Amino acid sequence: MNQSPVLTMDLQSLIDLLPDLSPNDRALIERAYFKAETAHAGQFRKSGEPYFTHCVAVAHILAEMKLDAEAIAAALMHDVVEDTNVTTEELRVEFGSNIAAIVEGVTKLKKLPIKSDGEKKSRTVDREMEYIRKMALAMGDDVRVVLVKLADRLHNMRTLGYMSPDKQRVIAQETLDIFAPLANRLGIWQIKWELEDLSFRYLDADAYRMIANSIDERRADREAYLNRVIDSLRKELVQYGIHNPIISARPKHIYSIFKKMDRKGLPFDQIYDVRAVRIIVDSKAECYTVLGVVHNLWRPIPNEFDDYIAAPKDNFYQSLHTAVLDSKGKTVEVQIRTKEMHEHAEYGIAAHWRYKEGTSRNHDDAFERRIAFLRRLMEFGRDTEDAASFVDTMKTEVFQDRVYAFTPKGDIVDMPKGATPVDFAYYIHTDIGHRCRGAKVHGKLVSLNYMLKTGDQVEIITSKRGGPSLDWLNPNLGFVTTARAREKIRYWFRKQNRDKNILSGREVLEREMKRLGVLDSTPFETVAKWFGHEKLDDFLANVGAGDINGGQIANKILEVERREQEELERTQLKAKAPALSLDVSNGVNIMGTGGLLVNMGRCCNPMPGDRIVGFVTRGRGVTVHRDDCVNVAHEAERLIEVTWGRQSAEQRYSVPVEIIAYDREGLMRDISTMFADERVNMSTVIVNTRHNIATFHLTIELSSLQQLTRILTRLENIASVTDARRRSNM
Questions:
Q1: Is residue 130 among the annotated active site residues?
Q2: CA-to-CA distance for 476 and 434, rounded, in angstroms?
Q3: How many distinct structural domains can be found in the chain?
Q4: What is the pLDDT of residue 133?
Q5: Going by C-beta distance under 8 Å and a sequence separation of 6 or more, which residues neighbour residue 611?
Q6: 164 & 23 share domain
Q7: 30, 64, 82, 383: which one is catalytic?
Q8: Helix (H, G, I), strand (E, B), or coil: what is residue 659?
Q9: Can you give the residue range of the structural domain that contains 264?
Q10: Are 474 and 420 in contact (CB under 8 A)?
Q11: DSSP letters spanning 245-266
Q12: Is-catalytic flag, 365?
């Protein structure tokens, strides 16, 4: 077969990237090359180039990542089944089942039909969401399907300029949202950075050009400066016995610079990691030696040191990061890692792929954990027809930090940060999740909304039968944080018949209304209408199915009560006499006398709605206490009968409140926002935090016991708050 000189040269350059190829592997790649070249003959890309050049480029990307011969061969032929007359069976006969499966998996990503919700056929399914769902379903058991697809997307992004502007933006956004984070999750930073920069170029061309031009304008000065830094490092490292380090200027990634500028609100001039060097040495011990040398040469910047060797990132990235100031005040970022760490940082999961002819693949622990991540996505993708739900799970898995907990047998369960024992139970098995009734961490009972930490050993306590609780779907209670568990719970409730849903919904509604003290005063039908339901049974069925949770019901009732209270206050203000006294004694009637000075007991802080008694003091009139106050329990001879009288709309009573919550960022803000929303003033605030538990002691000013009940309920509905109660000063 006569081949063109250009294509023959392409084949040779591809082979040159893989110097350790066996004769059989070389023959395999050559056969795949000529098969694809023949199949794509006469086909052209938008650029006018032969289509086969794209196949060679994809194979080159994987060869640079040092993937095995099967992956390279599959990359060369990844489009032959879709775009030519070649069949999967033909590939299986000529090249074996592994290569045929990879090509078939890549083909499925484009060939699988987009599915819609059966009950909402008119709904347009987001193509991005459905695409990711298809990716997980199509890869089967071979992660190389994803690696070929990432390489395919990378080359398409490199040549995106030949597409229309609208197409450019759609493809760039999809790449930034899905493919770059996926590459990051798999630890393939080389592809992640390039996908981000290429996407950014088409999504915000002005910002891209500004940063790129700023980098280019100072390239000569920066390179000269970094060369001096590198020379100083080499000379110093030799004195410490490190003779052959690989020291280079770290590549500048435009999108990461943009994100840092945007996140910190800084101009380009103040982004110091534009000046950055990377040092690669032979051993972990040498990494720490180099770190000491760097900090001895230049002054380290506080809070800019990260040890990802001792504590690797969740995508298994390892390196030392530090930033220093030189004698002239210039900042330099320094990364220090071993050759193996560098290989893993650049190629991620691909660095773990080993293939030896006639033997099985050698998977290390990091490889197996990445494979487990992909298989979890595949498993969930088969359980649901809802593309949106699947992608919610996908994005949760990809974007969030990870927690690694253990089963009692020592098996690792990899979950998003913030996961709870209920999430853990559903990760193990759906049925265990449904029957979960309690949990132990390191042998001690914990609440079901306990946030798991890396290293926790978790034991799930189950019942013989039963199902999940509707409370688990209440986001304010924090029982479930993962999309996977939420979907499993919702599906369980959907499967129950309507009568059971109505019964369960009635129980939820009664419980919430009883807790808020409105069970006897507010008809169920009224609450249903607040949610837009004319028929009560329809409303109860939705509650029972989990579409409306107890937190939503409580918030709606509180919202209505607040509006009614505000209207009542406005009416009272209009009706009050101009000369009405604001003296607290106007709110208390003293039986059998009058004209006495009246004070509120500071030990129990009574307010309208409380049962009260009067205590006759010596020289200070009458002090009003709650009738259960311990300070007057043994003073019966000095007690007199008092009652609440007419209250001023402007009268406020000081009430101490205690709030207990798991500490988190934004907790105080959420509490303050709630008080502001209720128009309640906080006169004192004391906060103590210990072992991640925050205790708030507050004094707030209220008008009635009803308002206090409403506020305590709203406080308990704030995320991470475990208890809110009225506190006595006794």
A1: no
A2: 20
A3: 6
A4: 52
A5: 626, 627, 628
A6: yes
A7: 82
A8: strand
A9: 212-350
A10: no
A11: -EEEEPPPPHHHHHHHHHHHT-
A12: no
